[in-house]
Amino acid sequence: MSSPVYIQIHNQLRKNIEDGKWKVGEKIPAERELANDFSVSRMTLRQAIQALVDEGILERRVGSGTFVANRKVQEKMSGVTSFTELMDAMGKKAASKTISYHLTIPSQTEVEKLKLGPDEQVLRMERVRYGNEVPICYEIATVPASLVQQFSKEEITTSFYRTLEEKANLYPGHAIQHISATKATEKIASYLQIKRGDALLRMTQLSYLQDGRPFEYVHTQYVGSRFEFVFEK
Amino acid sequence: MSSPVYIQIHNQLRKNIEDGKWKVGEKIPAERELANDFSVSRMTLRQAIQALVDEGILERRVGSGTFVANRKVQEKMSGVTSFTELMDAMGKKAASKTISYHLTIPSQTEVEKLKLGPDEQVLRMERVRYGNEVPICYEIATVPASLVQQFSKEEITTSFYRTLEEKANLYPGHAIQHISATKATEKIASYLQIKRGDALLRMTQLSYLQDGRPFEYVHTQYVGSRFEFVFEK
DNA sequence: TCAGTAAATTGGTCTAGGCTGTTAGAATGA
DNA sequence: TCATTCTAACAGCCTAGACCAATTTACTGA
């Protein structure tokens, strides 16, 4: 890996937490100890810890130690959350049906958002997602073809983010969401089993890798009566 | 002062920007130079800079310098933001028209959300808000009557949050927002100068004081085609 | 004059420590 | 047994450098 050491350590520490090596509420090893384990200076390790604290994953207590914070549901919203996790949190069974999946030429919007080069192709996926068998949203996800050529359809559709991390060592950083409201077209209405003209919650999300490269543009339309976003400020 | 040096420097730097010593887009002195000016190590100064970068006030460019950023809209969304500030950020002139304003008996929802006692009354305000003379949203705000009895209508409608802080020493803490989509009723449509059935972005916000007491419940319906939320995750 | 190259400047990362204040727990005394 | 005091461990904060990579600036030769 070529990324800075403190980013690598940051990812490793997060992995330890995700893998359950360190559980919620537990104290993680002392800074000096971890610095020694990773063979870096304490300042470097502190940078990694600081990042996790900023993300709300860790919590420092002076004189006591650094602990794994217990994330609230709404805090999950602050991370880049998948539909599956979202449905899980609501106690619903997530499912999805792929409408289309193919390499193609990007739209003007996609070129701009994903900062694509000329002649660069994209992988575009159309999906309808369900919670407890009921259609919740219609989604179009676009990623640069260059990023996913090495992966199988299986690897991309089931858990794209995990595949990126594990197979390509690429880590999602921040994302920008725009949320507005619109009405269902005839086509969307049929996919979502609603009436034409029904209210939809429209979200576009542009996700960036840790190095700042945009890597995924998703346009989602949620059934207004079946879905809501919850944010804590 | 007893606060950490990097916090003191952070405040001083922010002051320089607010006072117009460093203008938007301008380069601020180099890290090494500032570190020398403040007589601290570069690492300490970088902590102060980092905080300002996190707040979106400064912007770093490797090999070039650190610049005063022009704040984007979505950055403002991270705080508890007023409609007026929001419109300001978009370069629009904010205005509002009060539809109704009276003490009344709360609805069941309001009792639950605001944790009202039996027979406790509320102040309910209906408003239409405008940006550049165009209707943007229709809003119903409810606060417990007990909280606002000491204030004039003027104090409440112009700047409720400021009044709370200055006159009652009450500080807003966190808030929870629910965002969904719905269609305009005949009544709402006429207020917002749209057609019945047009898509609306529906937000409810329950705001809490720093001590955890809920103090304001706001139900807002934004014209789908004239407004969007932007979140950065 | 202009293009190409070298040097200086800048932020990014990292080291190997030091000192301070807080905290939990052990030792001590009533 | 209970309360107090002491101590070791901890995170917070800070220093004074180092080297790297990106960018800008200055210089040099055609």
TrEMBL record, chains A, B:
InterPro entries: Bact_HTH_transcr_reg, Chorismate_lyase_/UTRA_dom_sf, Tscrpt_reg_HTH_GntR, UTRA, WH-like_DNA-bd_sf, WH_DNA-bd_sf. Keywords: DNA-binding, Transcription, Transcription regulation. Residues 3-71 form the HTH gntR-type domain. GO terms for biological process: negative regulation of DNA-templated transcription. It comes from the Bacteria. GO terms for molecular function: DNA binding; DNA-binding transcription factor activity. PANTHER family: MANNOSYL-D-GLYCERATE TRANSPORT/METABOLISM SYSTEM REPRESSOR MNGR-RELATED, MANNOSYL-D-GLYCERATE TRANSPORT_METABOLISM SYSTEM REPRESSOR MNGR-RELATED. This is GntR family transcriptional regulator.
